[in-house]
Structures are given as structure tokens and as C-alpha cells.
Amino acid sequence: MEKSIIANNISKKYKLYNGTKERLLDLITPRSYGKDFYALRDVNFEAEKGDTIGFIGINGSGKSTLSNIIAGIVPETAGTVQTNGQVALIAVASGLKGDLSGRDNIELKCLMLGFSKNQIKKLEPEIIEFSELGEFIDQPVKSYSSGMKSRLGFAISITIDPDIMIIDEALSVGDKAFAEKSLAKMKEFKQKGKTMIFVSHSIGQMKQFCEKILWLEYGLVKDFGPVEEVLPKYEAFLKEYKKMSKKERSEYKTNAQEKQKSALVTQL
């Protein structure tokens, strides 16, 4: 089958500094300051055209970082990601300008994607109707709730008809009715052979919608495979993780990060 996403050894490194002084010294002196932090380390996975893949993992595991790299918003530090077709990232407030109205944001985003003024004029009513924002469409986006921002972002993205859609927690805010409406729309996209990445803490939504699961744990791929194989293991892990004390969770995180370092040393 045709590949829509090929992620090959993706790593993302950030520098953590103890204050502004260290940051400045790191810029102007040859000595290295700050501590390296890997949000992702050697992530590999492939998506076939028409796949629906869920990204799971506890907070801080790199799900959103990987989503942003695939969407071309954040550059990878190492590795390569290849996408076949137009990619749309739907996340709360993603790409929305707070000082502009919802209507102005529709026009701006569509113009950036290469649509003409006439095309945007035809698309606008459909976007506004799906968003259910009503008279709020002409209010500044900075006055919107998280749910309203998510609605607008989702409505724009599904109307411009991308080849690859990444939904990053966009359905975790707002009302249940809109989430169900959005899931129904995503199923339509699936039937058209679109590729979708679904980032969510909702196990129920993952079971309902996804075919494959990529389980990330503190930047490393813990598992990747069919929903029926990976999700039960993740659910069992969550059950044990929730029982852990704050100290035990901290130790678990430290051990996971040590695995990251060991992986790097092995490669070197």
C-alpha cells in the first residue's frame, strides 16, 4: 500500500537552562551551557494511506511534539519525516491569531494554504456552520473558550479537505455533541482514504475510531501495532501507574529517561 507518513529515527532535543544568564552564555561562548532534554528519541513508524493511528502516552511522553513535527510546525533535531499530501493539524488554538476575529482567521488560514478570495467566500459559510459559533464568528478569537477555538480549528481543517489530518486533543474540550459530530466527520474522511492521527487521553475514542496505536513513553516508542494488541497493554499500565505514589511516579520517569540515555550511548 501507499505510504502517507514515514517517520525515520525522529529525535527532538531542547536545552533546559537555569535562568537567562545560562541561555545567553550558551549563545555567546564556545562552552556548552544548559542541560539537554530529549522530547523524542529515535521514533520510527509508518502510516499507510487510509490509516487511523492513535498516539497515546502519559503527559510528557512527546505526543504533541511528534504531531507538530509531522505537521511541519516544529523542526526535528535528527531523523526525517516524509508526508505524502497536505497535512492539517487540529489542536486548541493551533494557528489561530487571537487579535483577529474568527471570520478573519478563516480567511487568513485559507489564504496561507493557497485558496483564492473567491474560493474562500464559497467555503466560509460551510466552515461557520460546522463550527456552530454563530455571532461569535465576528468576535476576537482571544475571547473564545478553548472549546470554541477547537471548533473553529476543526471546522477550517475538515473543510479544506487535507490528505493527512492530525487531531491533537481537539475533541477533549467543548461539548459531547460537537465531539460526536466531529467523530462522524472523521469517519467520512476515513472512508475517503484519508490518513488520520488521533491524539487523545480518551481510551473510548481510541477504541471507537483508531486501527493502530503508537504508544510513546517519555520520548521513546513503547509499542506500535493494532488497537486490539496495544491498547490492553496500555490500559493495564495505566491501572498500575494510577496506583503509584508521587515518589514512585518520579522514579518511574527517571528510569525511563535513563533508558533514553542508554539508547544514545549504544548508538554512539
Query: SSE order, as H and E?
Result: EHEEHEEHHHEHEHEEHH
Spatial gap, N to C terminus: 34 Å
Oligomer: single chain
Strand tally is 9
Largest sheet: 6 strands, mixed
Query: For the largest beta sheet, what order do the strands appear in spatially?
Result: 5-6-7-3-8-9
What integer is the average pLDDT?
A: 87
CATH fold annotation = Rossmann fold
CATH superfamily: P-loop containing nucleotide triphosphate hydrolases
Stretches with pLDDT under 50, minimum 5 residues: none
Which architecture would the CATH scheme give at its second level? 3-Layer(aba) Sandwich
Helix content: 40-55%
Structural class: alpha/beta
Number of structurally distinct domains:
1
Number of helices, where a helix is a run of at least 4 consecutive DSSP H or I residues? 9
Q: What's the CATH class label? A: Alpha Beta
| Molecular shape | globular
Estimate what percentage of residues fall within beta strands.
Answer: 25-35%
Describe the model.
The protein is of the alpha/beta class and 268 residues long. It has a single domain, classed as Rossmann fold (3-Layer(aba) Sandwich), CATH 3.40.50.300. The protein has helices spanning 20-28, 63-70, 102-112, 117-131, 146-159, 176-191, 203-209, 227-243, 246-267; strands at residues 3-16, 35-48, 52-56, 78-83, 87-91, 164-168, 195-199, 212-217, 220-226. A hairpin with a 2-residue loop joins strand 8 and strand 9. Helix 4 (117-131) packs across helix 5. The radius of gyration is 20 Å and the shape is globular. It starts with a strand and ends with a helix.
